[in-house]
Amino acid sequence: MSIELININKKYSDFSLKNISFKVETGEYFTLLGRSGAGKSLILEIISGFKTADSGKVLVHGKDITNKKIQDREVAVVFQDLAIFPHKTVKENIAFPLYKKKKAEKEEIIISVAKEMNILHLLNKKPNTLSGGELQRTAIARTLVSKPKVLLLDEPLSALDVQLKAEATEMLRKLSKKGITIIHITHDFNEAINLAQKTAIINKGKILQQGTINEVFSKPNSKFAANFAGIDNFFSAKIIVDPNSQTKNAIINDKISIKVLTKETEGKGFIIIRNQDIILMPEYTKSSARNNFKGKIINIINEKLGKKVIIDIGIKITAMITESSEINLHLEEGCEIWVSFKASATRFIKN
Question: pLDDT of 111-126, one tens digit each?
Answer without folding.
Answer: 998 988 889 999 999 9
